[in-house]
Write a structure and sequence with these properties.
This protein is of the alpha+beta class. The chain has helices at about 5-55, 65, 125-175, 190-240, 245-275, 290-300, 300-305, 325-340, 390-400, and strands spanning about 70-75, 80-90, 95-110, 115-125, 285, 310-315, 320, 345-350, 355-360, 405-410, 415-420. Residues about 375-390 have low confidence and may be disordered.
């Protein structure tokens, strides 16, 4: 969820709660004021009646004065004084239904020791309807104010955060592998100006470090090849010498194997560095069926030497968009591993679909989780002469083209599947 929307939700909830509390308080206050007014009216009526009782022994008809029924009872004995207000719903023929009334019941005594009870009432239905109308108006006003507040907060927040989203868009466009640079955004907000400065400094430092690392990697890779070539030449010359002994020849062979391994590691690291640096941007259509047949033909001597049985199941023609060199590295590694890490008289099964490629071969248990073998310098057999970079190159190419790869082992079969 965007920060703008999250803040807007919090503001809306807070405003809704605040307005609700205000509405309840206003409703309660208005109702209290109206009921107090009704109570005062009833008390005034009570006082008039009480004075009339004190002044005369007769009880006149007060209904014509107050326009509603009034019940007055006089007793010869004294009563316990009391004053009560009661709200009750009664059937009212005038309003055709249940109507709410407020009743006043008062018990008092005259100076000569007689007791009396005054019962008077007044409908509060009209006052109640008035309260509802006022409350409806208040709710409408508060709802409109809430809507205006939400729109105002959204507009102000959106305008305030526009510079931030502009900065975010610029940082997304920054690419360390190209010449594009981070463009700071002109802003009057101090915090966003600080963010501009930090990002500009950071991207400049990242680009500088990246360029330095790239140059070092390229230089080291280039410089290693020269001494490696010299060592190989010297070893070949020594091996061709007539005075060489079997022991020396064996040691020179071991040295040559180590030098070859260094060369392979250097080439693999250089390849992965070029992939990271996006130095293989050109992609073309590659017929995977033809490519696999070409590679099998190239590996035919190795296949025959291990007496492997190779089968190709071509369900349909597959054309993939990929750089020619990277496609060669990818499928050469997969096929080379299937041959190298296979049993004598083993088998290799290849299945080609338009949306996936699968290669399945017999082989020993890797003794580790298969996903770990995609890491650099991870090997199933640590004593192997392999550099442990083959599958890491495969994974690098797969990630470069946003493909998906699965590797599973179910004894005695290794299965690698690439989804296009």
């Amino acid at each position: 969820m965007k920060l703008l929307y999250r803040a807007l939700i919090f503001y809306s909830i807070a405003a809704f709660v605040l307005f609700s509390i205000m509405g309840i308080v206003l409703y309660t206050s208005i109702r209290y004021s109206i009921l107090k007014q009704v109570s005062n009216t009833l008390l005034t009526e009570k006082q008039i009646i009480e004075e009339e009782i004190f002044q005369t022994d007769s009880l006149p008809d007060f209904s014509s004065i107050f326009n509603h029924e009034i019940e007055v009872s006089v007793y010869k004995h004294r009563l316990s004084p009391s004053l009560n207000f009661i709200d009750s719903m009664i059937t009212d023929s005038v309003h055709e239904g249940m109507t709410e009334y407020r009743f006043l019941k008062y018990a008092g005594n005259t100076p000569d020791g007689r007791g009396f009870i005054i019962k008077t009432s007044q409908s509060i239905q009209e006052e109640k309807d008035l309260v509802y109308e006022i409350f409806t108006i208040i709710l409408t006003v508060l709802a409109v104010l809430l809507l205006i507040l939400i729109i105002a907060v959204y507009s102000i927040s959106k305008n305030t955060w526009s510079d931030f989203y502009h900065i975010l868009s610029n940082i997304r466009q920054f690419d360390i592998k190209t010449e594009s640079r981070f463009e700071p955004v002109a802003t009057q907000i101090h915090e966003f100006a600080q963010l501009n400065d930090v990002l500009e400094s950071l991207t400049r430092k990242i680009r500088s470090d990246y360029q330095n690392l790239k140059e070092v990697t390229e230089n080291v890779s280039h410089e290693i090849q020269t001494p490696v070539s010299v060592i190989r030449v010297k070893i070949d010359q020594l091996l061709q010498s007539k005075a060489i002994t079997d022991k020396l020849a064996s040691e020179l062979y071991a040295i040559n194997q180590s030098v070859s391994k260094i060369s392979r590691i250097n080439q693999a690291i250089t390849l992965m560095s070029k992939i990271d640096n996006n130095q293989y941007p050109v992609a073309g259509k590659i017929n995977l069926n033809q490519k696999i047949h070409q590679l099998i033909e190239q590996f035919s001597d190795f296949i025959e030497s291990k007496k492997l049985e190779v089968s190709i199941d071509q369900h349909e023609e597959a054309n993939i968009s990929m750089n020619e060199d990277l496609a060669g590295f990818l499928f050469t590694n997969l096929l080379g591993n299937a041959i190298k890490h296979n049993f004598e008289n083993g088998s290799i099964e290849i299945s080609i679909h338009h949306d996936r490629f699968m290669i399945r071969n017999t082989g020993p248990d890797p003794q580790t989780r298969t996903e770990f073998l995609f890491q650099r310098f991870r090997k199933a057999d640590q004593s192997s002469e392999s550099a442990g970079l083959g599958l890491s190159i495969v994974k690098k190419v797969i990630d470069f083209y946003n493909l998906k790869i699965e590797y599973r082992f179910e004894a005695p079969f290794h299965t690698v599947t690439i989804f296009f």
